[in-house]
Amino acid sequence: MPIQKTLSIIKPDAVARNLIGIINHEFESRGLKIIAQKMIKISIEQASMFYYIHKDRPFFNELIHNISSGPVVVQVLEGENGILKNREIMGATDPKNAEDWTIRAKYAKSIDENSVHGSDSEESAKNEISFFFSDIEIYNR
Ligand code: UDP
């Protein structure tokens, strides 16, 4: 299986509830390595660029408001099949539909405050990582 990097965000609802450590443990205990990590506050402008693909969706305004409502932890995770593996560990977008063992089932408050973001393809992983990180900030073996 290929070793892949993916962009993860621990969203404001989870940071506000002191869940950074426990969510990092979910990743690390399931074989993903944290190879870059920083805490930032995303502005509304940055959020609308990051989520541009969702600009016509009815939940867009709420989405950019939520992601910029407080500090987030942006991180690069790496592992075998890392993009899909992270999506599995996150669980379904709506925590009501997420499997019991996943981050969203255990910690998300609702579909709009669902604790984590993860890239959904190789192309989005590449774009999303470079949106937040320069090469020098990422550990490369
Ligand atoms: N979202 C929302 N309402 C919806 C669908 C999505 O607030 O009805 C938010 C939710 O926080 C989700 C984000 O928009 O994580 C991006 O949606 P996507 O379908 O890409 O889900 P994800 O890839 O995060 O599982």
From TrEMBL:
Binding site for ATP: K11, F59, R87, T93, R104, N114
Primary location group: cytoplasm
Gene Ontology MF terms: ATP binding; metal ion binding; nucleoside diphosphate kinase activity
SMART domains listed in its UniProt record: NDK
Annotated localization: Cytoplasm
Classification via Pfam families: NDK
Annotated SUPFAM superfamilies: Nucleoside diphosphate kinase, NDK
GO biological process annotation, one example: UTP biosynthetic process
Record field: catalytic activity: a ribonucleoside 5'-diphosphate + ATP = a ribonucleoside 5'-triphosphate + ADP; a 2'-deoxyribonucleoside 5'-diphosphate + ATP = a 2'-deoxyribonucleoside 5'-triphosphate + ADP
Sequence similarity: Belongs to the NDK family.
Subunit note: Homotetramer.
UniProt-recorded name of the protein: Nucleoside diphosphate kinase
Species in which this protein is naturally found: Lyticum sinuosum
